[in-house]
Protein: Rod shape-determining protein MreD
Organism: Aquimarina litoralis
Amino acid sequence: MNNNIPLYIGRFISLVFVQVFILNHINFWGYLNPYIYIIFILLSPININKSLFLVLSFILGITIDLFGDSGGVHATACISIAYLRPVILRSVFGLSYEFQTVKLSKVNFGQRLAYVTLMVFIHHIILFTLEIFNFSHILLIAKKTLFSSLFSIIVIMLVLVLFRRKDS
């Protein structure tokens, strides 16, 4: 992992930059907002120190919150999926996760899609529930979660295919 630190720093900075300056300004029909910055959490090494991973996830989320003036909802959603990631990895990848041999670029499309879908959906439901924070607007929360999740999943899957590393 030590030789990949510049890669992770570059990934962090570029995802925050793209999210803040480009994707945060996309809002189709009031429900479609792609949130691809969580790729950083999705692609983090499996054997990363759990405390460090939670801190990095918090920093990622709070950075998006600072630029978007969103009061910590992104930080909360990021910490939540970072905390739940081992459970999701175990349920999607099974023994490959247990032996820490999972490489997202080498798993089949169905497993990759299941992993991304679960992580994105959990992130988005937490994000929009905290953003709206009114259960009388449960349909609005559901619509925003569903449509933004679908859009984010499509964009994330395209990014993962287009920018996958050949050597991993």
Observations:
- The longest helix spans residues 138-162.
- The chain has one domain: 2-162.
- The helical segments are 5-21, 39-42, 50-68, 73-93, 95-98, 109-132, 138-162.
